[in-house]
Amino acid sequence: MNTQTFVDKLFSEYEETAELRDFKEELLSNLEARIASLAARGLEKQAAFEKAAAELGDISALADQISLRKKQEVIHDAYMGIKTYLKPGRVALYVIAGAAVIFSAVTALVVCFTGEEQSALEAFWEPNKKITGALGVLLAFVPVAAAAFVFLGLTQETASRNPLSKKRGAWYALGAAVLAFGLILSPLTYFSTDRGLMEAIAVLIPFCIPGLALLIFLFLTEKDTLKPWARVRYEKEARASRELWSDPAAAARFGMAAGAIWIGAAGLFVLFGFLAGFHRSWLAFVFAAAIQLVVQSLMMKGPSPNKGARSGGDTEGGEA
Questions:
Q1: Which of 25, 50, 80 is the last residue of a domain?
Q2: How far does Cα 160 stand from its chain's mean position?
Q3: Contact by Cβ (8 Å): 230, 81
Q4: Range of the domain at 49
Q5: pTM value?
Q6: Looking at the structure, do residues 95 and 220 belong to the same domain, yes or no?
Q7: Tally of CB atoms within 10 A around 122
Q8: Is 110 in the same domain as 192?
Q9: Averaged pLDDT in 10-residue chunks for the chain of 320 residues
Q10: Helix, strand or coil for residue 161?
Q11: Considering its fold, how many domains does the chain have in total?
Q12: Half-sphere CA count of 39, side-chain side, radius 13 A
């Protein structure tokens, strides 16, 4: 095996980049220099190659021969780095979309709290003009802003994900805009007409259903955009989670703990309901949910029971 083939094999599992090619050339130069030094001492070419390759060992231990910082930069750029940062134009679009949402929200509040006051009878029998005006303002800005946020977010590269194509991002943006339009138009129709709830619900059919269906279709047909390092990390986390919850003892412990937490929450709900009123006693369930999440996180943090059982069995077998 020649030196070029040997170096290429070392990095066969890495994504080829310009930075990685430079690093491989530097490594190849150092390796050939070491082989030449050994050959000058009287070793045959093959023996010099084998000795230099053996000295090479783990690529991560070559801080004395090759810049370790450069290696880390190469791996970071190839796997964890972001090649496409936020450009000024994209930042400007984010700012414009955010300003549109804030402007519509402030304007809607101004419309709600200003204008002529209505009597209780007028507010009950006549359409509420203030709510109608506020919803009209939101209808003019929110769907467009939602589409902009969705498009900009999905077509932007992150440290863990590659960006979607602009065409697919535009379809996502269209679905979000149509869905937001229908969700705002429905209550606007309810407050601005005398026909009531049925017409407001009917407005959802031509807008919310197609928009939601488009988003579901895009989501179910989406390809994996995770970068290699993120995919490896998520696979490890998923495997660790499966190993934890596939263990009957761990599942039983969690089930008993969860049952005790919610039985206690139900008891506290009744107790606090009689002592302080049922309008406050529902907080017992909030604390119960928080405690259950803490218990689950502690179980996932510890070592896998399956691994412990296997290691214990191996130890006993080895001692026997």
A1: 80
A2: 8
A3: no
A4: 3-80
A5: 0.57
A6: yes
A7: 13
A8: yes
A9: 78 67 79 84 84 67 48 59 78 94 92 62 53 89 96 89 91 96 90 74 90 94 83 80 76 86 88 78 86 82 46 40
A10: strand
A11: 3
A12: 11
